[in-house]
Amino acid sequence: MHNFRHPAALTLAFVLFTIVALAGVVGRASANGAPPDSGYPELFSWPSTPEQLGLPRFVGSEAIPNPLPPIVIPPNDFLAEQGRNSLHGDNYNSDTLNYDAPLGIDPIVSSRQLGLLAATCPTVVFDSYGNVVTICIGIARVRLFLMDPHSLEVLAEQELPLRAWVAAGRPEDITTDSSGGGYFHVDQFGRALVGVSNQRIQRWEALQVKNKQWEWQLIDDYDLTADLNDPDAPLQDALPDYAGRLWFTTQPGIIGYLDENTGVVETLALGQFLQNGFAVDTDGAVYAVTVDELYRLGVNDDGSIGITWQRPYLNDGGQGGLLSQGSGTTPTLFGDRNDLIAIADNSAERINLNVYRRETGEQICQFPMFEVGGSATENSPIGYGNDLVLENNAGYPGPFGNPLETVAGLTRVHVRDDYSGCDLVWHTEEFRAQTTPRLSTATGLIYTYSVKEGQPVLGIPINGWYFGALSWETGERAFEVWVGNGGFWNNVLDPVTLGPDGTAYVGTKNGLMAIRDSGKKPKKPKKDK
User: Fold this and answer.
1) Buried b or exposed e, range 391-404, using 16+ CB within 10 angstroms
2) Where are the beta strands (DSSP E) in 253-409?
3) Taking the domains of the chain in order of start, what are their residue ranges?
4) Overall CATH class of domain 2-35+67-516
5) Helix (H, G, I), strand (E, B) or coil at 188
6) How far apart are CA 329 and CA 337, in angstroms?
7) Which pLDDT tens digit goes with each residue over 102-144?
């Protein structure tokens, strides 16, 4: 299965493997839920100001909200509130939510460096108290963090099983493997639900044992080793459906579910490599995309897993996925009538945005995106109403390459009301980004995270990083605000997350940053019942 890995990662991977071998995998975090041994510093920025790179501190002007009708995604009784329970916000992967978000009003930036070489934190979710819950993935280590949502102070941390490449002895996977914690969720009680690399599904609950002192406690630990019957099948994602069945996916394409009431496990081997997350629908359907096909799956009357339909997509040697040679998109469920699904393909010269009817798999459009020779994505589309927004990630050089090689561009596409096809709404190249953008209906703005080329310092090329927003209606830039300089601020494909208190978060190569408007003292939400 691992012929889907990118050969370009091999040289770098072996260099990193040597570093790990010399440095070991022992670091700062305490195991077994113990409190952190010391505070973590802010992300390092050099130089310390954008002016030293000849870059602006702020571009545009303070945004004026242009609210949109709220998105309505049916609540899942087995997950936290839609909008704050998943990497893409919800189990539809809409990347759209109804929370307030920054307008660029004297922004306040907080950050934490959580690793020296690497500690990328792709999924940022929130527990019942409004605290940040994230998993940060290093060269070999995987750690679960509880953090203050404003200061990003680390309240508790927990070592999880080492990354799958360590056990498999496969260092070429260092920069491409997102299993074992890249995707995870928060359940209805505010607990972290994680498919870890050693084929277990775990629930972790953060408990406040003393004033301002927290620790992680393991609540559930389900071993799927015997059910998977494949030692080279690290878990990619684990997510409950609307009936409470706990679905999971693995990189070799084994998909299954666990009935927590009976302990019964059902699996189905698709025989195709799977890199992305998946979506669950109210009618019991599960949607997953492999390197070859998009699948709609469900549970048969006898409890077995059945394929309702499967649709191959173009995958003829493009770089659409970037992490694996297939689609880079987790399926997005959307539509005014709540009946559409979208993915991007991996066409060689120019990827397409593909839209289907969810019930039948009938294809509505195959819409060419971006420009010939400069078209790829590793990030799922925003889905709102009958519209989608997709970001261009062509040229993405990996976590240690030059981010300026990434091709700029975001595009909004509209699905016609009669489902006769799709049309371009707008395209912008104002942002050179490598993130999953996020839409706030409260502000009517799309939020992204981009890079600008700075003047060399002492002959060393250094880039500046910006948090920014653009209009949903027109695609015009509202503002960009500088947050830091240098590689520690590189977000390496991590998404923008909007929190319930109006703060925005972005995982970086070495930790996590947060930004909010000044003059707004965020209040933590009341604890979920």
Assistant:
1) bbbbbbebbebebe
2) 254-258, 265-269, 279-280, 286-289, 293-299, 305-312, 332-334, 340-344, 352-357, 363-368, 382-384, 387-391
3) 2-35+67-516
4) mainly beta
5) coil
6) 22
7) 999 999 999 999 998 889 999 999 999 999 999 999 988 999 9
